[in-house]
């Protein structure tokens, strides 16, 4: 069962990589078609072949996920059987690892699929709008120039809107950074004030220590002098 699970996991890994590349190429090809459309060189093309490939790969991945789920269920049944009590901990660890891999693959598949469907829905909506614009432009030759100007102005407005959003984001980030710096400066200032308030007490303590050292030095010198005089008296007695 572990061998079958590993084989299915390897197949799923390859399928998911190809599936992700398909979604990326779909988005890139649609962007390229949109750029070509904006330059009025080629009409918008459909991605029916990519859609069919997407559906086929999605079905294959779902089948592999179903098979891997069945293998995990069989491993769980074997782990819970009464004949393997001594290996139960190791088997449970292996089963949990395969379950985590299955969960990761399932999450990745659904995420990639959702992204692909969102891109396709958006492109289909934009494609219908572009078709309407193209039909309008082809049906009214007198207003073609005005329509082109309107489209260019609309694109300029979109670019300006995007730049404004980026500027606002930068301003918000700068504001947050300045707020955090202000908090740090306040903290440093409070620490400096605390140290400044402690300095008089520290100076007083140092003076007391110096006085005590001086007193101890005088006492020690006096004791040494007295002892020396006594020794001299005893020696010449």
TrEMBL record:
The keyword Membrane applies. It is a single-pass type IV membrane protein. It is found in: Golgi apparatus membrane. One of its GO terms (molecular function) is SNAP receptor activity. Coiled coil: none annotated. Involved in transport from the ER to the Golgi apparatus as well as in intra-Golgi transport. It belongs to a super-family of proteins called t-SNAREs or soluble NSF (N-ethylmaleimide-sensitive factor) attachment protein receptor. May play a protective role against hydrogen peroxide induced cytotoxicity under glutathione depleted conditions in neuronal cells by regulating the intracellular ROS levels via inhibition of p38 MAPK (MAPK11, MAPK12, MAPK13 and MAPK14). Participates in docking and fusion stage of ER to cis-Golgi transport. This is Golgi SNAP receptor complex member 1. The lineage of its organism: Eukaryota, Metazoa, Chordata, Craniata, Vertebrata.
């Amino acid at each position: 069962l572990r061998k079958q699970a590993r084989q299915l996991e390897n197949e799923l890994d390859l399928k998911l990589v190809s599936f992700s590349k398909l979604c990326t190429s779909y988005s890139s090809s649609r962007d390229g078609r949109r750029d070509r459309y904006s330059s009025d060189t080629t009409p918008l093309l459909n991605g029916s072949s990519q859609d069919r490939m997407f559906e086929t790969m999605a079905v294959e991945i779902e089948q592999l996920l179903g098979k891997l789920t069945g293998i995990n269920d069989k491993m769980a049944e074997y782990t819970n059987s009464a004949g393997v009590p001594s290996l139960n901990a190791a088997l449970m660890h292996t089963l949990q690892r395969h379950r985590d891999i299955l969960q990761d693959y399932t999450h990745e598949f659904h995420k990639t699929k959702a992204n692909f469907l969102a891109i396709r829905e958006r492109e289909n909506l934009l494609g219908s709008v572009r078709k309407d614009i193209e039909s309008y432009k082809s049906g009214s030759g007198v207003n073609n120039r005005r329509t082109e100007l309107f489209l260019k102005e609309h694109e300029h407005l979109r670019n300006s809107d995007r730049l404004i959003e980026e500027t606002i984001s930068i301003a918000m980030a700068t504001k947050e950074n300045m707020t955090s710096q202000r908090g740090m400066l306040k903290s440093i200032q409070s620490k400096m004030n605390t140290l400044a308030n402690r300095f008089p007490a520290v100076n007083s303590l140092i003076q007391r220590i110096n006085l005590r050292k001086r007193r101890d030095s005088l006492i020690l010198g006096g004791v040494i002098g007295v002892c020396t005089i006594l020794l001299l008296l005893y020696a010449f007695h």
